[in-house]
Amino acid sequence: MSTGIHIIGGGLAGSEAAWQAAEAGARVVLHEMRPVRGTDAHHTDGLAELVCSNSFRSDDAQNNAVGLLHEEMRRAGSLILRAADTHRLPAGGALAVDRDGFSAAVTAALAGHERIEIRREEVAGVPPREWGSTIVATGPLTSPALADSVRILTNDDGLAFFDAIAPIVHKETIDFGICWMQSRYDKGDGADYVNCPMDEAQYRAFIAELIAGEKTDFKEWEKSTPYFEGCLPIEVMAERGPETLRFGPMKPVGLSDARTGRRPYAVVQLRQDNALGTLWNMVGFQTKLKHGEQTRIFRTIPGLENAGFARLGGLHRNTFINSPRLLDAQLRLKARPDLRFAGQITGVEGYVESAAIGLLAGRFAAGLDAPPPPTTAFGALLAHITGGADAKTFQPMNVNFGLFPELKTVRGKDRKKAMSDRALADLAVWLDASAQRGAEQRDLAAMD
Fold first, then answer.
1. Which residues contact residue 103 at a Cβ distance below 8 angstroms, ignoring those fewer than 6 apart?
2. Which CATH number belongs to the domain containing residue 310 in this structure?
3. From the centroid of its chain, how far is CA 308?
4. How far is CA 201 from CA 177, 214, 253, 310, in A?
5. Is the pLDDT of residue 132 over 90?
6. SS3 category, 401
7. Under DSSP, is residue 261 helix (H, G, I), strand (E, B) or coil?
8. Which of 22, 93, 371, 446 has the lowest tally of Cβ within 10 angstroms?
C-alpha cells in the first residue's frame, strides 16, 4: 500500500488530493503556507478557502458538464462535494455554499483524519527527491519562490503573468453557410482555419463595439502585473488605431471568401483547439471584456450569430504549467515522475475542475487508479490537459461537453443527457475496478 505522500497547497485541489490518498490508505503530509505566509487574495488560514465566488456553478448532472462532474465526484467519495452539499445555500439550479462553513468542514475533516498530518509552512522550492511521491497543488497564487523553481525545472516561461485568454466556440454552432475552411495562401492542409468574413461597414462597427464595450476591472493585487505584450487583449489593440486589427489578427491577406471568390475586408479566424475537432479558438481574441459583452459583441461576427461558447475570454494573473507538454496521463511530471501536479496550476479553470484534478492526483499517488475513461467528465478533463489540448496554444479551460468524445448516435436536445448517461455508466465500471485494486492492496499489506 502506498505511503508517505507529500502534498503542497491546502486549496480545493490539495485538500481533495489529501483526502483521497488518505482514504486509500496512504500516509499524507499536507503543506499549507498560510498563516506563516499569506497571499493577496486569501483572508483566513482555513483549508479550501473560496477566494472569489461561493458558487460551484450548475448542479444539473444530466444537461451540464460541470453538474456531471459534481455527480462523478460525489460517487468517487469527494470531500469537497460532501462539504459543499452540507453547507449548500439556495441558488436555483446552481450549487452555492456558505464559504466559512464549507472551509471549516474541510479543515476539520482533514485535521481529524488519522493518516493526514498538516504542516503550516512554506515550501519555497521544488520538493527534494527524498520526499518521494509529491503533489504540487498550489493554484494560481503559487508563492513566487516555488513558481520560480517550477519554471526552472520545467524550462517553461508560461507562469505568473497576466494570462490573456481567447474565447472558444463549439464547432457545431458555427454557420458554414457564411464561414469557410481555408489557411492563408492555402498553407498546411489548405483548410486549417475557419474564416468569418467582414465587409468594411461590419469591421468599423465591430471596432467601435470593442472600444466601447464594458471591461472588467483589475483586482488591487493584480494591478502591478503588466500585460504580456505578445498576447494583448483585442480591445487594447483596437484602441491603438482603427486599422491595427486589420493588419493583425483580422488581416484578410491570402484568403478568398468561398461565396464571392474575393478577399474580404477583414476576417476573424478560428483555429482547432482540441484533438476531437469539436472546439475552435478565436485567434487573437484574448479579451478583458465582461462576459455578457463578449457574447453580445462576438455574435455580431458574420457566421457566429448563434455561437455557443465553451469558454469566454479573460485576463488575470495566473500560474499554470503547459500540462499537455509536461505531464503524463497520471499527472506526473515527465522530467521528474515523483512529482505530480493538481488543480489550477495544471491549466483547469474553476473550483470544481481544480478539486476534480486533485481527486485524481490523490488516487493516482495512492496507486488506486488507472486514468478514467475519456467518456467521463473526469477523463475528458484529464485527457484535455494531458494531451488533448494543443500545447502551443494551451490556456486554462472549464469542463464542457466539447471535451468529450462525440456521441454520433444522438443529436439535438437529448445529446447532453445521453453523454451524461454514458459517462456515469463508464464511471461505475472505473470505480468498481478501483475498488477491486484497493482491496488487493489491502490484502497485500495485511500479508506483510
1. 44, 46, 47, 48, 49, 50
2. 2.40.30.260
3. 18
4. 20, 22, 18, 29
5. yes
6. helix
7. coil
8. 446
What are 246's three cell numbers? 486589420
Position 297 confidence tier, pLDDT thresholds 50, 70, 90: very high
Cβ atoms within 10 A of the Cβ of 84, count? Answer: 31
pLDDT tens for 189-220 read 778 889 999 999 999 999 999 999 998 875 55
Instruction: Give the dihedral of Cα atoms 413, 414, 418, 420; nearest 10 deg.
Output: 40
Cα–Cα distance, 324 to 327 (Å, whole number)? 6
Cα atoms in the 13 Å half-sphere on the side-chain side of 222: 16
Residue 97's pLDDT is 87
Task: State residue 292 phi and psi, 5-degree precision.
Answer: -65, -40
Number of H helices, E strands in the chain: 12, 17
Give the number of domains in the chain: 2
Question: Is-above-0.90 flag for pTM?
Answer: no
Alpha-carbon gap, residue 94 to 223, rounded angstroms: 31
11 within 8 A of 49, measured Cβ to Cβ: yes
Q: Let me know: does 2 contact 21? Beta carbons within 8 Å.
A: yes
Residue 403 to residue 389: CA distance in whole angstroms: 9
What confidence tens digit (pLDDT) does each residue in 374-433 have? 999 999 999 999 999 988 888 788 999 999 999 888 888 899 999 999 999 999 999 999
Residue 370 DSSP code? P
> Whose CA is closest to 249, among 128, 108, 393?
393
User: Is it true that the peptide bond before 396 is cis, omega within 30 degrees of 0?
Assistant: no
Structural domain harbouring 436: 5-158+320-447
CATH of the domain at 392: 3.50.50.60
Rounded distance between C-alpha atoms, residue 21 and residue 29, angstroms: 10
The single residue listed with the C-alpha cell 446552481 is 94
Query: How far apart are the C-alpha atoms of 196 and 204, rounded to whole Å?
Result: 15
Alpha-carbon distances of 398 from 156, 277, 306, rounded to whole Å: 22, 17, 21
- Pair (307, 373) in one structural domain: no
Residue at which a domain ends, from 315, 331, 354: 315
Query: Both 261 and 347 in a single domain?
Result: no
pLDDT in tens, 251-262: 999 999 999 999
**Residue 394, C-beta contacts closer than 8 angstroms, at least 6 positions apart:** 158, 322, 323, 324, 325, 347
